[in-house]
Write a structure and sequence with these properties.
Layout: H1 2-16, H2 19-40, H3 42-46, H4 48-69, H5 71-89, H6 118-125, H7 128-148, H8 152-167, H9 176-188
Helix pairs in contact: 2-8, 4-5, 5-6, 6-7
Length: about 190
């Protein structure tokens, strides 16, 4: 069942054609594999202090390479940069909850509807305070879940979730309770 669900997830990720979702899925599987390898081979766990900085450097280099060479991801970076200027100019937000409100930036020739970043979209549409509180909510949950289950699988899950939240406007306010419930089930629910 697990293998079939993972195969279905791969097919659905590629059907969405969302670069953030595909990148998040790859990162999640990489960290789950790394967690498995560490549990399987104790020698790697003993040398983790030497492996971890190398892993961080490689991940940083891969992110830099992907965002600078991939046209879609570089366009997202320019969207964020332009949206940040709009947020700086209107810190109180637009007041449009989830309606369409096109705006222009200095970095892209076409008009944008949203920033393709959940935190930036909430800052644009509501206010800077709402976006900061939204970010702090996730920061608190991430810290407590990492303290409860400190392993690479937890780190991979949160890296994938944050990548999705920062790459696309994936989490609207209406879906937040369901996402928080799933986080509770993954990290805080006692195993029976």
């Amino acid at each position: 069942t697990y293998s079939l669900s993972q195969a279905l997830l791969v097919v659905l990720l590629f059907l969405t054609k969302a670069p953030g979702a595909i990148l998040a899925g790859c990162l999640l599987w990489a960290f789950v594999l790394f967690h498995y390898v560490i549990k399987r081979f104790p020698m790697i766990k003993e040398n983790l202090l030497y492996i971890l900085p190398l892993l961080i450097v490689v991940l940083g280099f891969l992110f830099f390479l992907v965002f600078s060479k991939n046209e879609v991801l570089h366009e997202r970076f320019l969207m964020w940069k332009g949206s940040w200027e709009v947020i700086r100019d209107t810190p109180q937000g637009w007041g449009t909850t989830f309606g369409v409100s096109p705006y222009e930036t200095n970095y892209l020739p076409a008009g944008l509807v949203h920033a393709h970043n959940t935190f930036l979209v909430h800052m644009q549409r509501h206010s800077n305070a709402v976006g900061i509180i939204y970010f702090l909510l996730f920061a608190v949950v991430i810290v407590f879940s990492a303290l409860r289950k400190p392993n690479f699988k937890t780190f991979g899950i949160w890296l994938a979730v944050l990548l999705m939240l920062c790459m696309d406007f994936t989490l609207q306010t209406l879906n937040l309770p369901l996402v928080l419930f799933m986080i509770y089930c993954i990290f805080f629910r006692e195993k029976e």
